[in-house]
Design brief:
The structure is a homodimer. With about 375 residues, chain A is of the alpha+beta class. Chain A is built from twelve helices and 17 strands. Chain A has three domains: about 80 residues, Rossmann fold; about 70 residues, ATP-grasp fold, A domain (Dna Ligase, domain 1, 2-Layer Sandwich), CATH 3.30.1490; about 200 residues, ATP-grasp fold, B domain (D-amino Acid Aminotransferase, Chain A, domain 1, 2-Layer Sandwich). In chain A, strands 9, 10, 11, 12, 13, 14, 15, 16 and 17 form a nine-stranded antiparallel β-sheet that branches. In chain A, strand 9 and strand 10 form a beta hairpin. The termini of chain A are far apart. Chains A, B: Homodimer.
Amino acid sequence: MQVLVYGAGQLAQMMYLDGAALGIDVQAVDVSNNTVVHPVSKQPLDCSLEQAIERADVLTVEFEHVPEALLETAEQSGKLHPNKDAILVGADRVREKALLERLNIPNCAHRIVTDLTQLDECVEALGERLIIKASRDGYDGYGQWRLSQKADLPALKKQLEGLDLVRVPLVVEQMLKFDREVSLIGARNVSGDIKVYPLAENLHYQGQLHVSVAPATNSDDALTAKALEIFSKLVEGMDYVGVLAVELFQCGDTLLVNELAPRVHNSGHWTQAGADTSQFENHLRAVLDLPLGDTTNIGGDAAVSAMVNIIGCDDHDLALLGLPGVHFNWYGKTVRNKRKMGHINVTASGYKALGSKLEQLSGYLSADHFPELVDEAARLQK
Amino acid sequence: MQVLVYGAGQLAQMMYLDGAALGIDVQAVDVSNNTVVHPVSKQPLDCSLEQAIERADVLTVEFEHVPEALLETAEQSGKLHPNKDAILVGADRVREKALLERLNIPNCAHRIVTDLTQLDECVEALGERLIIKASRDGYDGYGQWRLSQKADLPALKKQLEGLDLVRVPLVVEQMLKFDREVSLIGARNVSGDIKVYPLAENLHYQGQLHVSVAPATNSDDALTAKALEIFSKLVEGMDYVGVLAVELFQCGDTLLVNELAPRVHNSGHWTQAGADTSQFENHLRAVLDLPLGDTTNIGGDAAVSAMVNIIGCDDHDLALLGLPGVHFNWYGKTVRNKRKMGHINVTASGYKALGSKLEQLSGYLSADHFPELVDEAARLQK
């Protein structure tokens, strides 16, 4: 069985590693130059993209920002999972919001803006505390902005002047007071079977995921059922095949969809050590229409996991390898500021034990690069 | 970090997969033609053996039958772990027996025979029920023979006539009545730290390992301590670095060493799914002098594992992937009679649950190729 992944980063690499154990050959496409490469060594393989598409049983993606022309060709082969529309939902906030509305899935109150004059209407409808996001990433000058009070609106408009909002509209959202961010990772295979992992609880710092804990603390059956209902609506509504990550804001008992990622996801890396079947293996199973693997935590009802991202540094003390239940993962990249270099999965029996292991782990890491870790370790031990 | 493995079979492949996750680059040497290959694809890499030796931080082996000249060159680089003498102990039963005697480690009563006339003395000393083994494998006409009664000795001698017993002596052992075969897999790193996995209990069929269960049933602390003592004596006596497998016969409370394998071992494959750190990862950690990883079963005191070999067939029903706790591993080889094609790891909480899972699993496998499985499943459920 051969799977061709668009994108040649760590997600393709981890798919390759889990696939190889099952006898599945995963190849990757470096979409910057359309070459087919080995997902670990990144060395070019001796075949063209056309040949690789021809040979593959399935095409899939490790990220949503694949150039649309490539996705179009992939879709035409009849082998692409998830489908092109589903991938584009993850790449375009306008499509994402339209999907959520169509499927009647709770999400943040918002407006789509294609002309700056519409911003007044947004303040009128959503209030004066707003988050403004470019609907698509990767365009110079486009990004995210915040409005804290109505009086700043003229200045904001000035800042946004000159953007082509017809080509790249803005999504304007009410700034939400939420309790926490959780994510639901799950898979649907070609046959339509669905399996989801326990909810993960995600801690961000300066816009990047730093720590995930799964199952999320204080998550009862009702919350889990709500998340599953959202997930099922989404995958069925999109005729989705593969692993899908749903980022959710929790406000009391309510779950609002923040963002969809049509792929394996950083907040699901804990599944490598903590779940019976990893998200990478289940993604491959899903797209190849194999039976999905068990998604529960390994080690019984009390078993819990954490994932700690290693971001922008490589100054960890490798003595951390000696800690029981600590699993080190390294992507083999050159250090750059804010770059995801690797992650550490930690498994334990119960949150207290997990917190204690994270506290121990923090002793081998520089506090500068792991600003959330000590507090999170303390929270879990309470 | 780069590790060069002599041998390019599934053991090197599994080292590669675990190494890649840690950022360790594993390359393999196909010793049939001295080319350096990718451990999974088996494709030649763009470097000579000399270059690969030069670049590697460590050289190691996936099997003991590496041509001695290659081992000699490897040893001269100063990077070979385990050392050449330790590897040769696994390849030569005369060296193995000499080591066991030197270290005063219990093993089967035996004699070394370099002349057929010595066989009479063997019967005299060891009795008339004997197993006769060529001291080294891979020579035409050499293998294993059995003597069941003294009257058959002349016929046996006739059969052995013409063998060059000075070049390849025979090891003659008393045929032992043992209760079962167990194995101890453990690792010692360059710094001398030692960690061992729980004892595995091994079921053979026609000379091949079919099922391992770990921890071995009915193994108390005293037995485990005995095995650890043997292991420690061996690795310290050989100044051994890496994973070592010790096959043992259990007779009542006594453990006798049957065979040593200076490498990761089939009876340790369960550690991939069942132990906190796999034998493959711990082998790499040991030879690179990293801290050894935890070797206990995942999931608490009741956690148990089994490994089922897939031998000479590929007619399994892939629906088995849907069974919780069942982990499929496939080596990507062409089917041949008696060839190890892959293995299935099964984890459970307690032996009864493990037996029940093995029983379920057997429904997806052909009874012809898994002759031990149903009985073993029944035994565990008792």
